Amino acid sequence: MRPSETALADARTALARCDALAALSARSGRIDRFALTRSHAEANALVASWMAQTEMATWVDAVGNVCGRLEGLTSDLPALLLGSHLDTVPDAGRYDGPLGVAIALAVAVRLHARVASLPFALEVVGFSDEEGTRFGAALTGSRGLAGTWDEAWWAQVDAGGVRLREAFVEFGLDPARVGEAARPPESLVGYLESHIEQGPSLEDADRPLGVVSAIAGARRFALRVVGEARHAGGTSYERRRDALVGASHAVIEVERIARTEGVVATVGALEVHPGAANVVPGHVDLTLDLRAEHDADRDRAWDLIASAVEKRCTEGGLVFEAVETHRAQAVAMDPALRDAVAAGIRATTGEESVTVLFSGAGHDAMAMAAVTPVAMQLVRCRDGISHHPDEAVRLDDVALAIDAFEAAVLAVAAEF
Ligand code: HGY
Ligand code: MN
Ligand code: MN
User: Whole-structure pTM over 0.85, yes or no?
Assistant: First the structure.
């Protein structure tokens, strides 16, 4: 299926916008764009300028999401939201999040001329903090918009010692007004998100697009193994309580248990304190990211991991501490919206049977499901690579994604 020249031109614009956003980073030479930072503010301003080019009313909501709106048949109709996130992981690829915002904008441009005949308003949103890179809790932008903001998040502090509350004020937001970001369910028709697959299934199936069935539930923890910092030369093994030895056993236990339980668990960061060659490690901080298709499997795996690590640490005279920093339950996509996304893909690619995928990657759609029906379109990405600078997509696939996403919006309108 060869996309039209119009679709290819729209895809070039979308990819150029991902490139422009990629340049907005806290570190030159790589993409680090974390929530409520200067590069995030720059990204919001750039996306707002694109929205304004399409005569969208634009605003930044009370939790830092950038939003744009085109009115439907009459003003103040409930809105169909299209979007994704603008924040990134450290040393990120340029499509995880921004491609979904760019595709949503491309559809808004296309429908601009006919939106006044739609039975709903059309909104585009660039979420502020899907990854949770800076403060730990993930999906905070979409959860703010969905009305499930968690007041416990204010206790979070970033690596530089900045509290979330201070970051809010510095960004120009008022912590006391986060509730104003919450959208009443009656103001929304639904939420559609286009996103790179972040896995190899579409490439293995030689398909450009897929529709999501459900998104894995996730839990994240800040773990700490506590021993005793001692002189590396003068401390015998009998007298040592080496925190890194304990943490290393923990990392092995995480993988062993996750494999046997059929879940995925990842220790993505590990910090040794005080971190000197001639000091026996006193304590080690680790992160744990745990996901499964079913929350019960995820929770059982955590219980097994926690008790296995606790046992190992006690045997070694060490203390094991765990604080949960994020939890999102597994979410099934809304059947009607999922059918609309599939219909859009079918109409665009001519495929009889549209590829249906379970998403191990988390998305803002998980948070949005608390307030409105949600569905997702996935776009093939090279070798399934994501959360890495080598993230790549094909121009044709992006063109097909825009066509299919536009068709999905029109399918929602037709069923409305
Ligand atoms: O971690 C995830 O699954 C997503 O990329 N935030
Ligand atoms: Mn993402
Ligand atoms: Mn991501």
Answer: yes
